[in-house]
Amino acid sequence: MNTLQIARLVAAKDLRIEWNSRVFVNQVLPFAGVTMVIFAFALDADSVLQRVAPGLVWLATLFSLLVLVQRAFAVETADGALDALRVAGVDPRAIYLGKAAALGVQLLVLEAVLLFAAVVLYGQTIPAGGWVLLVTTLISATCGLAAVGTLYGGLAAGFTGRETLLPLLTFPAVAPVLIGATRAVEAALGTAGAVVSDGWPWVGLLAVFAVAFGVGGALAFGPLIDE
Amino acid sequence: MSVVELDDAVAVLGQFPALAGATLRVEKGEIVLLRGPNGAGKTTLLRLCAGLLPLVRGTGTVLGLDLATHRESIRRTVGLLGHQNGLYLDLTVAENVRFWGSTVGASVDEMQVAMRRLDVAGRLADVSVNKLSAGQKRRTALACLIARRAQLWLLDEPHAGLDASARDELDDTLTQAAAAGATILVASHELERAGSLATRSVEVVAGRVYDVVPGDPGSGNCEGEA
User: Fold this and answer.
1) Is there a domain that residue B157 lies in?
2) Which of residues 58-97 of A touch B (CB under 8 A)?
3) Domain assignment of residue B113, given as a range
4) What CA–CA distance (Å, rounded) separates B42 from B210?
5) Which of A4, B53, B115, B162 is the most buried (most CB within 10 A)?
6) Domain-located, residue B48
7) Could you tell me the residue ranges of all domains in chain A?
C-alpha cells in the first residue's frame, strides 16, 4: 500500500476511535462551548463581544486543539500502538498525514459549532458576501493547526510531562494562525469596518503556513517518533 | 536458509554494547527460548532482529534480509510483542485486526482466519478491547500479528500479567503457530513454562548467546555459541 492509502487508513481508524468513544462529542465540544460562555461572562457588553468574537472563536479553537491532540496521541500510547506502528514499519509520513487529517476533520466540526455559538451567544451576524472568505479561512487555518498539532503531539508523546509540554510547544508555533485567522474572519464578518478584500492576504499567509508545516511535519515525524 | 542468522553481532544502547558479539541461528518453525538475567541483552537481541536497532559490527540476516541494509523491510515481516499489546483500546477486536491487516493489504478472508485461529472471532469480535481480559488482549494482539503476515514472532515476556488459564491458552496458540510455519523467539524469565514450550533454549549472558545443554533447561549450564 502506498503512503496515501495508509494515511487514509490511519485517519479512518482515528475517526472510528472517536466515534466509538464519543470523547469529541461528549467532552471536547462541551468544553469549547463552555469556553465561549465564559468569555461572554468575562466581557459582558454585547458591543465588545461582537468586536472580539472572531478572536474568541479562534482562542476557543486553540484550547480545544490541545485537548484533541492530547487525545489523539493518548490512544496511540495507551497500549503501545504508536510503537507497534513503528515496529511494523508503517511509513511515518502516512501516520502523520493520517492523524493530521483526522484532527482536521474534528477541528472543522468544532469551528462550525463555535461560529454557531458566536452567532447565538454574541449576536454575531455573517453577511452573505463573507461566506466564501469564511469557509476558505476555516479550511486553511484548520490545515495549519492540524499540521502543527500533530507534529508537536508526536514529539510530546514520548516525554513525561507531555500534558504541560504540549501547550508550551504549540501555542508559540500557532500564533501566526491565530493572528491570520482572526483578521480574515473579521474581514468575512465585516467586524469594525473591515471589508472582505482585507481578508484574502491573511488567507494566503494561512495557506503558506499550512503547506510549510505540513511538508516539514511529514518529513520530521519519523525521526521524532523514532528512537 | 535460516530465519535468523547472526554472526558476531554487536548492537549498542547509547555507548553500551548491549550485544557484544552474539552468534545465533534459528530455523523455520522453531520456538527458541532466550534465557538470561536482567540486562543480559535478551530484549536488545529481539529489537535487533526486529530491525529496530542498527547492527554496529558483525553480520546478520532475518528472513534472508540483511540487518545492515534492509531494516525497514525486516520490520514489515516480523512482529514484536513486548509488555504492551499495541492495540487500540477504543476499537473492537475486529476493528483492530482489520486495521493491522489492512496496513499490509491483507484480505478480509486472511483477517477472519487470523481471528478464528486465535479464537477471537464470533462473540468477541465486536467487543471493545478495553473490556477484554489480559489473556483475550494477548490473543487479539497475536491475531493482529497473523493478520499482518508476520513470519517471525519476537515475544518479550509474553506470559507477564496473565493468569494460569490465559498462559495455557497462549502456549497452545504459540505451539499451533509454530506448527503452521511461524518461527518464534521468546525472551522469558519463566523457565519452566517457556522451556516446556520451546523446541530449543539459548542463554544470553553479557551480550553473547550460548546453547543450553539439552535436557537440563533450568541449570544455566552452557556450551558453545548458538
Assistant:
1) no
2) 75, 78-81, 83-90
3) 84-149
4) 12
5) B115
6) yes
7) 3-225
> Quick one: pLDDT at residue B221?
46
Q: How much is the average pLDDT of B160-183?
A: 84
Radius of gyration of chain B from its Cα atoms, rounded to whole angstroms: 17
As separate numbers, helices (DSSP H) first and strands (DSSP E) second, chain A gives: 9, 0
Q: Which three cell numbers stand for residue B34?
A: 532466550
**Nearest-CA distance from A164 to chain B in Å?**
24
Of the partner residues A6, A20, A227, the one whose CB lies closest to the CB of residue B90: A20
Residue A161 has pLDDT above 80, yes or no: no
Question: Do residue B72 and residue B177 come from a single domain?
Answer: yes
CB environment B78-115: b (16+ within 10 A), e (fewer)? bbbbbebbbbbbbbbbbbbbbbbbbbbebeeebbbbbb
Model confidence over B27-72: pLDDT tens digits?
999 999 999 888 889 999 999 999 988 999 999 999 999 999 999 8
Residue A38 CB partners (closer than 8 Å, separation 6+) = none
Cβ contact, residue pair B52, A87, below 8 Å: yes
Q: pLDDT tens across B137-165, in order?
A: 988 999 999 999 899 999 998 888 788 88
Residues B89 and B74 in one domain: no
Please answer whether residues A130 and A177 qualify as being in contact, where contact means their C-beta atoms are separated by less than 8 angstroms: no
Count of structural domains, chain B: 2
Helix, strand, coil % in chain A, rounded to nearest 5: 90, 0, 10
* For residue B182, pLDDT beyond 60: yes
Spatial neighbors of A14 by CB under 8 A, at least 6 apart, are A72, A75, A98, A99, A102, A103
| Backbone torsions φ then ψ of B52, nearest 5 degrees | -90, -20
B111 and B42 within one domain: no
Give the residue from chain A lying closest to B130, CA to CA. Answer: A79
